[in-house]
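Table S2 (text version). Query chain:
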Amino acid sequence: MRDLTYFVGITIDGFIAGPDGDIGFFPMHDDILGFMAQEYPETIPTHLREQFGVDGANKQFDTVIQGRATYEPALAVGITSPYAHLRQYVASRTLTESPDPAVEIVADPLEKVRKLKAENSALGVWVAGGGELAGTLLPEIDELVVKHYPVVAGRGTPMFGGDFRPTHFDVVHREAYPSGAAVSRFRRRV
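Corresponding structure-token output:
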């Protein structure tokens, strides 16, 4: 059984994107980008990997599942397979056909994730954004990797959508960076 990890950046007030889905206001300093390239290189889109010095194999994940709204910015600039170095799934109730053979559209992300977690692999599955998707997948999320940015958004997309469902996680590691960003790792409490 392999892990499902929600790897996400949030504001001080708990938002993963602005009201219109914008993430451009997150400060992307060299220290946090270095952390991503070194520890979670597969979270950098394929077309940016060389620019960030990522040339090796995946370290944490071999599969990504993202919500439609997370996938849309890539499509808007003509990138139909943003994570070509991973197996890619897009959870959507509105997309019925994939614009790329390397990207599978799934209508029931919870069922798909349960099947993916049951596979025999040393690498995990990454939930790449989408507060609603994360809320849907919460029963299966084993780990949270949260990049905390020193910015307040005021409103936007919350880290988790859905029903009130307290779920306990334990802090595994926390590290602050000179830019003011911090990264926390949490594991689901058993």
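Notes on Table S2: The chain has a mean pLDDT of 95. Residues 4-20+58-184 form a domain with the Dihydrofolate Reductase, subunit A fold (CATH 3.40.430.10).
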